[in-house]
Design brief:
The chain is of the alpha+beta class and 235 residues long. The chain has 8 helices and 5 strands.
Length: 235
């Protein structure tokens, strides 16, 4: 297990009711971090937590996935803007990507003279269950995943949102996790019915985080995605 990082709002091991060694390695349970401001993504293991997870997922509305017409990443603001008001860590002088690296990384090192730009860190990637020793020279080895992909959100209703709301979704730490670059690339803009993290231990937690984002932004999910999310949490 990596040593606790020098920055961030919590240490690995803050896991809510999902205790045990695995929780200490993974970080916070999504049920214990409903705003996404604690590091990690711990497994949901207890029957009580699984029941809570299913209740959350069950509240989501469903609809068919609409066309991708008009979608562009820039519709959600330029990448990693610090000025998306209304989300944690906004306007702190550090862009969203570096905020996420600081939040989730361990043994974080910064560029000389900066308390923002991360140049190296250790990351435990919950999606793969692997440790990554990351350096900025090979930046693409860690990518920031939008748990609810922006294209998915566009097709499920975000096309009709205000610019400000789309910018919030794109920069909200609740919807963001630093993970293996190749795994993030493989996910693309797929929903849970078509893609789940390779690490089976955190699939219910992933479903919960997806549901938390969808509920916060009043986004429906497809019926097949909802069914798959419930299945991950013991339904």
């Amino acid at each position: 297990m990596f040593l606790a990082g020098c920055t961030g709002s919590g240490l690995y091991g803050e896991s809510g009711s999902s205790g045990g060694d695995s929780a200490a390695k993974y970080g916070a349970s999504p049920l214990a971090a409903p705003d996404g401001t604690k590091p990690g993504l711990a497994p949901i293991a207890s029957e009580k937590d699984e029941t809570t997870a299913r209740e959350l997922i069950s509240r989501l509305s469903t609809k068919g996935r609409g066309p991708k017409t008009g979608y562009d990443r820039d519709e959600f603001g330029y990448a990693w803007m610090d000025t998306a008001d209304g989300v944690p860590l906004a306007r702190n002088g550090c862009d969203t990507r570096n905020d996420l690296l600081k939040l989730h990384g361990q043994n974080v090192r910064f560029r000389d003279g900066s308390d923002c730009v991360v140049v190296s860190m250790d990351l435990y990637d919950p999606y793969t269950g692997k440790d990554i020793g990351w350096k900025k020279a090979k930046a693409a080895e860690v990518q920031i995943d939008h748990v609810v992909p922006l294209s998915y959100a566009w097709q499920m209703g975000a096309a009709r949102w205000s610019k400000e709301k789309r910018q919030r979704l794109a920069n909200d730490v609740l919807n963001l996790l630093p993970v293996s670059g190749s795994t993030n690339s493989a996910k693309r803009d797929l929903g849970p019915a078509s893609w789940l993290p390779p690490n089976k231990a955190i699939r219910c937690s992933y479903a919960v985080r997806f549901a938390q984002v969808a509920e916060k932004y009043e986004l429906p999910v497809t019926a097949s995605d909802k069914e798959m999310m419930l299945k991950q949490c013991g339904d």
